[in-house]
Amino acid sequence: MNCIITAGPTYEPLDSVRRLTNFSTGKLGVELANFLTDQGHNVTLLLGEGATYAGARRAAAVQSFTTTASLGDRLQALGGETIQAVFHAAAVSDFTFGKIWQHTPGGDLTAVQAGKIPTRAGGLLVELLPTPKLIVQLRGWFPRARLVGWKFEVDGTRAEVLQAARRQLAEAQSDLCVANGPAYGPGFGLVTADAERSVAEVAGLYAELERVVRQ
Q1: What angle do CA 89, 33, 61 make, to 5 degrees?
Q2: Quick one: 57 and 162 in the same domain?
Q3: How many whole angstroms separate alpha carbon 32 and alpha carbon 30?
Q4: DSSP state for residue 134 in the 8-state scheme
Q5: Which of 44-58, 113-127, 130-144 has the lowest mean pLDDT?
Q6: What is the pTM of this model?
Q7: Does residue 105 sit in the same domain as residue 153?
Q8: Under a CB-based contact definition with an 8 Å cutoff, are residues 15 and 116 in contact?
């Protein structure tokens, strides 16, 4: 199969030297790419520039991305009916920066924009704006592919995480969602439109993901 895997974090720049990003090493996506490559699939790995995992990368092609927009451009450029599976495991930033204000000595706020925003004159007030949800655009870019998304949650219960995974399936028209994170607990939940099951080990997760996309 022709597969695409996204892995690692995006970032959003505050200015030319500061950025907002996610805690993501890229390991899970890189190892998934290695697993599928070893099974004989043709894999393109889109890996965040900020990924810190230093393990081997055996995918046929590796492309880097930076911001959410950068990752979206990469995905759209690869779009088409020849792609059979997309595993969207990247940790995409939920927010980007909007307007930035600086506190003046008199207590007022003044808009500021610079290559490196000065901080010595006082604190900053920063507007955060939501980034586009890339996963809801994948079906349009990859109309014939099996689409797999991730739902990583820190707060809440396992039942709430699974409910969020089901919402993602409906909103993104995807085929499977991997639920994990502290709110889910140990292991991974695999959620499809008509079934849910748990997988304890990463190796089992990879094998199950390959089985699902082969269906």
Answers
A1: 105
A2: yes
A3: 5
A4: G
A5: 113-127
A6: 0.93
A7: no
A8: yes
